[in-house]
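Hi there, hope your week has been kind to you so far. Thanks so much in advance, here it is.
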Amino acid sequence: KNVSFFGISRSKKFFLDFVKSVDRNMKTQFNQKKALKNLREKTNKYLLGEMRHKTIEQKSEKKKQNQLELRCLFLNFIFLKKHQIKCVKVKSW
């Protein structure tokens, strides 16, 4: 069964793996900078992949791209805020 997260529909496992991979990198202070960079790269890569699969008119393509970029920044912001306090712990959905 798929879960919708900020308008992105994927399996629960996808999101759990995504968060866990970030969590693993955030265990130590030393890894924080590297982990945040990886998170940004993963998020950007994923959202760009989503954009390629969407069939949209040329006119609205730029608008869609901007929306995806904003969504990407928002996802990054949420993870950053959470990790300033503590590592994300995912128990179950």
Observations:
- The chain has three helices and two strands.
